[in-house]
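Sample entry (727 residues):
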Amino acid sequence: MAINVPLSRQFDYRPPRDGACPQPGCRLLVPFGRRRAVGLVLALADSTDLPEERLRRAIAVIDDEPLFSAEDMRLIRFTADYYHHPIGEVTATALPALLRQGKPLVPSREMLAISDAGATCDLVALARRAPRQAQLLEVVADAGDGGIAADALTESLPNWRRAARPMLEKGLLRRFAARDEPAEDDAAVETEPGPALNEAQSAALLALRDRAGFAVSILDGVTGSGKTEVYLRLIQDTLDHGRQVLVLVPEIGLTPQFIARLRARLGIEPAVLHSGLADAARLLAWRRARAGAARLVIGTRSAVFTPLPNLGLIVVDEEHDPSFKQQEGLRYSARDLAIARAKHKNIPVVLGSATPSLDVLKHCRDGKYQRLVLPERAGGALPPTFRLIDLDRTPSLDGLSETLLQAIATHVDAGGQALIFLNRRGFAPTLICTACGHVAECRRCDSRMTVHAHDSSLRCHHCGASRRLDADCGECGAAVRALGAGTQRLEETLRQRFPDRRIQRIDSDSTQQRGAIDEVLALATTGDANILVGTQMLSKGHHFPNLTLVGIVNADQGLFGTDFRAAERLAQSIVQVAGRAGRESRPGEVIIQTGFASHAFWRCLIEGGYARVAADELQERAAAHWPPFSRLALIRSAAHRQVDARRFLESALSLIVQRDSPGLRVFGPVNAPMARRAGRYRAQLLLQAGDRQALHRLLQHLRPLLEEHPHARKVQWSIDVDPVELL
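Predicted structure, serialized as tokens:
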């Protein structure tokens, strides 16, 4: 049995005394230490290594039938094995929150109905002595033989339960539980025809249709090339054959436009799964998918685990996006698990991106993946033109140069829309003393506090700590000022410069409330907002018909990054956000502000596009033996004392050294680049190997030893296989 605890082991129990023996994939309520826990049955066995006196009996079976099929269980086991993570925590990730808590798969509702005795009761006489009871009886009677839900009664008669108690005792009312109706098939809605495919799209679709069984294909298309149109036709083919389709997107912000387009073209309502949903809504979508009633499922990272009995196709949009990799707890890649799931199921998986990741491009070079290129924008739209602004020659005010401000005016006056991109939220990156130079720092992290002007606060974007904005320097008492620019500061500057224009900021601060992202994206799509200011939320997959100008502020952040992926990430970010401009009939322009206009990166990107950057990066990675030409695993530790964090990794290093692992390179242990975060000191140990199997054999040997090591009790630690963030 798998139980949600950080231990790489399974637990043996006797079946409950009453009822049928549970099958693998069912949940059980079991005693666990001094508490009760919900566990998932992994297998049935005739014997156990546990002594008879230690073998405990399960309390109750929660599910009448397995929640997961044998195929679903295989994916869960594969995930636990590949990422060297406790299987109990993997099953918890695969289950919706309500099922993890032991709630039923199909919720029941408390109902009240009138009895035969209640139907013959004299309401007039009852109203004289008990008016509240008479009122309740009348409401329940009006609901008919099917009764009325307790929730509905609470809305009309908030205190009905007190009145109901004596009526239930007298038999005037009866209480019962009603299960929710079983999931129905997708309701058909009116569809609209799609545009004709161009030559490249038609060729790509034909190539995809020719691949039977498992195959990985990458739609490598420039932004606006019509990748979604190819998806749509392939999805329709799959639905026509009675199969289900799973579409993965990296972030919630990508779902509104995408869902609307899928609904309009395919004529069905997709089941949606992402963290922004209420628990009940998420369970309902999960249940419909598991029952096969939802033929199309669209979701973010964790949707990859959704049970789909008739799965026939998986689509991973924006496959390069780091959001597909979970960074806490179970550190899995949804893209990679989608490929593994497709392989086990023997079905095709289609990856899409205008900036494919280097590991995918290497697989294409090696002949493992099929690469389908869409080199031109659909509908005859032209690619945007690029222009560099050298900040050494053209100074900026609050992050915006005069050249960029004039370009914004020109485009907006011509009826276009401008997008100003800065991947830094808040008003300013930090607060600095004008006299001694002291900066406001987080008391729990080795980081600076970010200025948020709208509520006069300083916030740490790493641990969430917040405090009032300092009125003066805490060191010398002199005046302080905000240093640098964030999206809030850009918004304020633009409002001052363009008071008659509607300006909309789109970042994680402005879209916290439920439904806010849908509202602001609607304003952006219709063109009601003249100037958009935002972070990476605006750079992926959105289609803004009126957008003609993209201004990229502080584009130099990735030029000198210490992570070996810095150039790849910077190129992807710029190409993606630039691709929002000029997607319709109006030409687009991209203006990049940089303090290093002569840097070789800019010439490479502007003259050769992402393909040139990717080719150069692959060559450098091969020479340095970095991924995708090797495999990495990162062991992290965090503790309240720095010595404990380091000591645990030193113990791990000694265990690694004791085992002969040819071709393995070990870096560290060293302090993490941000050594202290949220009050804990952090350190890391990096493992690199040319042979993936050798690395996994080592980790398989190492994890149980680390779990039992005395130093493990003093730290929080994790193993990250194929890490995408080393910092």
